[in-house]
Write a structure and sequence with these properties.
The complex is a heterodimer of chains A (383) and B (353). Chain A is an alpha+beta fold and 383 residues long. Chain A is 44% helix and 14% strand. In chain A, the strands form 2 sheets. A 4-stranded mixed sheet of chain A has the order 1-4-5-8, with helices on one face. In chain A, helix 1 (13-31) packs parallel to helix 3. Chain A is globular. Chain B folds into 3 domains: 1-77; 98-194, Butyryl-CoA Dehydrogenase, subunit A, domain 2 (Beta Barrel), CATH 2.40.110.10; 196-351, Up-down Bundle (Butyryl-CoA Dehydrogenase, subunit A, domain 3), CATH 1.20.140.10. Chain B is α+β, with helices and mostly antiparallel strands. In chain B, a hairpin with a 2-residue loop joins strand 4 (140-147) and strand 5. Chain B has a 4-stranded mixed sheet with strand order 1-4-5-8. In chain B, strands 2-3-7-6 form a 4-stranded antiparallel sheet. Chain B contains 11 helices and 10 strands. The chains are: A alpha+beta (383), B alpha+beta (353). Chains A and B meet through helix 7, helix 8, helix 9 and helix 11 of A and helix 7, helix 8, helix 9 and helix 11 of B.
Chain lengths: 383, 353
Amino acid sequence: MHDFVFPAVTLPESARLLRQQVREFLKKERDAGTFTPRKNSWSDGDAAFSRKCGQAGYIGMIWPKKYGGQERTALDRYVMTEEMLAGGAPVGAHWVADRQSGNQILRHGSERARQMILPKIAAGECFFAIGMSEPDSGSDLAAVRTKAVKVEGGWKISGTKVWTSSAHRAHYLIALVRTAAKEDDRHAGMTQFIVDLKSPGLKLSPILNIYGAHDWNEVVFDECFVPDDMVIGEVGGGWNMVTGELAFERSGPDRFLSTYQLFLASMAQLGEKPDARAVNEIGRFVAHLTTLRRMSTSVAGMLTKGEKPILEAALVKDIGTAFEREIPEIFRQLIPSEPVMDDESSDFEALLGMSVLKAPGFTIRGGTREILRGMIAKGLGLR
Amino acid sequence: MSDIRDDLEKTVDRICEAHCLKEVFKSSEAGSWPQALWQALEEVGLPQACLTEAQGGSGLSFDEALFVLRRSAYHAAPVPMAETFLAGRLLSAAGLQVPGGVLSVSVSHAKDRLELRGSQSSPTLSGHAHRVPWGLTCDHLAVVAQREGQQFVVLLARDPLAHSASESVKNLAGEPRVQFDFVNAPVIAFAPLANASERLLSEGALMRSVQMAGALQRSLEYAIQYANDRVQFGRPIGKFQAVQHMLAVLAGHVAASAAAVDAAIELSSDAPEQFLIAVAKSRAGEAAGKGAEIAHQVHGAMGFTREHNLHHLTRRLWAWRDEFGNETHWQTRIGEMALQQGPYKLWPFLTSL
């Protein structure tokens, strides 16, 4: 039986210094009016802010220096990301590139892809989108139908990807594509490609979300050419890459801090001496947050040591996303207000309104909660 | 797991598997003292695990001692291990000698009103102690009493206890909780200790959190086992997504309580760390309620029988979440601490722990 242990992580001195540096960086940018800490910061991007992060060395910080990185530890990066999120910084533009695309390219990309792309990501000038879902393939990722056909010097991709966040603002898309017909092993024959979003044969159309914003896109590939050296990893080995390594992207602070700005704004609204029920609820959230931070930092520590805490990481996402969804539900009752749909305002009612409207996405993005729970069950030893 | 923990786990498992038998639970709930179980634990020095070697302990670290407690709760061992730990730590914090045998404590209950009286040479205790665990079974009882606005740790021997008990009830797990009304009961040792009541409440909350983490772990194991074994509609019920999702949620509570408890233990070996203990007790308490609900639902009618062992764990979870402060008590403390920081200093506070 699985024994749940979340060992303490002692942060290196470098991480402690970095925490102060990031706080000073954010204070300077806030004071200069670069951003207002109010949004769900990793789904809100600002290309100019990303460039500043790049200049400060806050993107791709764990990568080798020859690719524009800082050769810092994963725990340093953890501290940087949690400070950015807790500070409400608009890190959305470079988030995907920094969290997963760049890492995949570093580990499995061609040398040309590394040299061409990683320094630009690290500079905060190159953004990525993820092309996994399709009209008939959401939770069932193996049902992907977009296919690539081998041609001279590369591949030609045809098919349709949907719910592709930020594709209209990104420079590249990593697409999971079928490169061989489906066989008995439905996970075989899938490959990841780095697709330049300016390539001919690509058509992007917006898919508006429930509050009318354009974040998602439909991306149609019509014999879109991708050169051989933009294949990530082995041809046919895409499945393990998206399911194996991405399992470790589940446990970061982005899975429980999405409504932290609303939590802080609610505390400010309630004042220094709120009623007993409000004190109680604030205490409950802080207890959950403290516990989630312990679990999340502990998983980061285990990953640094080369361990594979897949079950622990999945649990952080499951309880973390439930936590961030619950915050607007509780505080709307404690602070009588009529929430407003306005993604630009920093008024409490607007912040609350946008949190309510964005919350359904928290337990869907990066894999629906129900699929995740199925995986957890398997990990627990259910036969 | 470290070698020491591994050994401790094996030792506790061996003793509990031999002695936490159905008839032992049954007779212990009927009021008999499970002597064989306690004796087996004493033979390897586990009730003294929380003491330093100078105090007669076995030289285990604080986290190793609490691991023993957690594992004994995993087996729902019906003995006052936590209370013996608590009394030992309270007495030694006050600089008093810790007697051997079975110990218990007053629980810093809101209804406790205890006063140290008499002279230096013949001190006595008077007043009310509410719900003292194993109050008539212990060899010695440590309580916190007041005198002239100062708090004292006071030790009583077994003799006066029988005369002073006014009522004995059972908690939800069927363990004895005794109400005492002392009138000039003889005291065998006493010493002042600042904030003794608060200290006892916090350490008690930590012990109960640790116990809840252990009992939750076993409840999850029972539920997984049952879901794999129980066949309905031609397949194990664990094949049903509805059941799988319930167990995933239960696992989240088990994992969260384990994490919260470990964090609190690490900083509490010398003195209780208020904030992290408040987090542990409130988080584990919430997990206890929600976790017990799921464990029972998965077990269906079988888990609701006296026959199945699940109730030994879940009844303890339901008792422990309310003892030494319930979720609201500790969440309110956390809320007050958070409000003291305010929204701008909260994050620096959380990351400084």
